[in-house]
C-alpha cells in the first residue's frame, strides 16, 4: 500500500458517497523527527472495511485504524497525536523515533460532521 494520488483520492471518496457510505480520511498534518510518512500523506477508510493509501504502516497505522473506526462510528473528526519513541521503534524493528499529528476527518455528505 503506497501513497494515494489526489485524483484517485477524490474519485474513491465520490464513489463511496454515491453509494451513501461514510468515509474517514486520515491525513498526516505534522511530523517531527524520524517518521514513516511526510506531511500530507493520506489514508482512506471505508464503511465496508476497505482502505486506500497509507500514513506509515506498522504500529502507527494500527493506532490510526483504531481511531478511524471510532470516528466512523461516532461521526466526529479530530486531531490525534502519535509518538514513535526510539524505544517503541526498536522493539518493533522500525527506524522511526519521531511524532506525528494525524487529522482523522469524517466525510459524510448526507450529514453534518463534528470537529473536536
How does this model look, in words?
There is one protein chain. 32% of the residues lie in helices and 32% in strands. The protein is an alpha+beta fold and 116 residues long. It has one domain. The longest helix has 17 residues, at 58-74. Residues 112-116 have low confidence and may be disordered.
Give the structural class: alpha+beta
- Order of helix and strand elements from N to C terminus: HEEEHEHEE
Helix content: 25-40%
The overall pLDDT average reads: 85
In which order are the strands of the major sheet placed?
Answer: 3-2-1-5-4-6
Task: Pick out its properties.
116 residues, alpha+beta, six-stranded mixed sheet, 3 helices, 6 strands, 32% helix, disordered C terminus
Short overview:
Mean pLDDT is 85; it is low at 112-116.
Annotate the secondary structure layout.
Blueprint: H1 6-18, E1 23-32, E2 42-46, E3 51-53, H2 58-74, E4 76-83, H3 86-92, E5 99-107, E6 114-115
Parallel strand pairs: 4-6
Antiparallel strand pairs: 1-2, 1-5, 2-3, 4-5
Amino acid at each position: 500500500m503506497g501513497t494515494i494520488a489526489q485524483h484517485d483520492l477524490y474519485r474513491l471518496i465520490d464513489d463511496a458517497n454515491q453509494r451513501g457510505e461514510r468515509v474517514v480520511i486520515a491525513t498526516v498534518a505534522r511530523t517531527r523527527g524520524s517518521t514513516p510518512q511526510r506531511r500530507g500523506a493520506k489514508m482512506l477508510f471505508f464503511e465496508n472495511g476497505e482502505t486506500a493509501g497509507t500514513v506509515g504502516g506498522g504500529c502507527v497505522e494500527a493506532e490510526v485504524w483504531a481511531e478511524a473506526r471510532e470516528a466512523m462510528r461516532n461521526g466526529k473528526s479530530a486531531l490525534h497525536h502519535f509518538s514513535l519513541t526510539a524505544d517503541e521503534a526498536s522493539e518493533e524493528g522500525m527506524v522511526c523515533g519521531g511524532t506525528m499529528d494525524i487529522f482523522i476527518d469524517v466525510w459524510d455528505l448526507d450529514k453534518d460532521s463534528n470537529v473536536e
